[in-house]
Inverse folding.
């Protein structure tokens, strides 16, 4: 592993089978995704009759400097780790043991950085805050970082990393899709706009979000649906209710992680190209 061209960590896992003293480690499966890799190993001790399965989650989408440009990859990674973690799976390994798990704080992941502080700290804080937001409806980033740094020096190292945590926002839908299933994603919102424009975007891997469709609100009624030619024949529909939208996708034809964005604008100006560029500006409400 390198950071700013410097080698910070040697590769410590095999591509096939390796013997480490009396421990045999065999790579049995590799799942390569756009921003992370999942590896599954069989671990066996000489003389023992038990083979244990170890799963490694390796996030590859973090640049050498700063933070990821989009938070969606990291959020999807965290969700994937949680979805793969069984309640009786036993302890997880963290590169730096920032603090011991308690009844209210569980670090259910494996992560590694060059010093075990900066990127690992960001990962831990985001994971804790997502759980806190879901459980209590609030987040406390400052005190979480302060507590981590009191137990592990330099945990969350830079200002930009701290800002990165503070600006993480979840997309409208981030789900693992299964071939052929029907998926329904809900977005709730509050708006008093007399007119509004709703846009749905789809993002796969590291590709730029693709425009799917648009709905227009006039006199409290959502009117026509405009679909992108690329998605015109796809089996999806959006239901606009009083305070939420439902994106319903039938017969899903992908198996990788796909992120759906929902954006609401009070006005729309310029041509489609200009609109797409300005979709993420401050006058948009990103529905979560």
């Amino acid at each position: 592993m390198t950071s700013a061209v410097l080698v910070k960590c040697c590769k410590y896992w095999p591509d096939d089978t390796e013997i480490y003293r009396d421990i045999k480690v065999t790579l049995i499966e590799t799942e390569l995704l756009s921003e992370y890799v999942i590896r599954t190993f069989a671990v066996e001790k000489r003389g023992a009759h038990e083979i244990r399965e170890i799963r490694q989650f390796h996030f590859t989408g973090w640049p050498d400097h700063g933070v990821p440009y989009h938070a969606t990859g990291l959020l999807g990674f965290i969700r994937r780790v949680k979805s793969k973690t069984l309640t009786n799976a036993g302890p997880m390994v963290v590169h730096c043991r920032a603090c011991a798990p308690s009844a209210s704080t569980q670090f259910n992941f494996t992560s590694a950085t060059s010093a075990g502080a900066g990127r690992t700290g960001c990962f831990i804080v985001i994971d804790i805050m997502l759980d806190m937001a879901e459980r209590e409806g609030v987040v406390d980033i400052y005190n979480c970082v302060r507590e981590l740094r009191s137990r592990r020096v330099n945990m969350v190292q830079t200002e930009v990393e701290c800002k990165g945590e503070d600006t993480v926002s979840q997309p409208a839908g981030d789900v693992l899709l299964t071939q052929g299933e029907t998926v329904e994603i809900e977005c709730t919102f509050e708006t008093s706009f007399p007119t509004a424009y709703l846009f749905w975007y789809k993002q796969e891997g590291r590709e730029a979000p693709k425009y799917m469709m648009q709905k227009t609100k006039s006199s409290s009624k959502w009117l026509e649906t405009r679909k992108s030619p690329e998605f015109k024949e796809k089996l999806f529909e959006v239901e606009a209710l009083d305070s939420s939208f439902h994106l319903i996708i039938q017969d899903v034809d992908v198996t990788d992680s796909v992120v759906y964005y929902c954006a609401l604008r009070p006005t729309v100006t310029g041509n489609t190209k200009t609109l797409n560029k300005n979709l993420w500006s401050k006058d948009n409400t990103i529905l979560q």
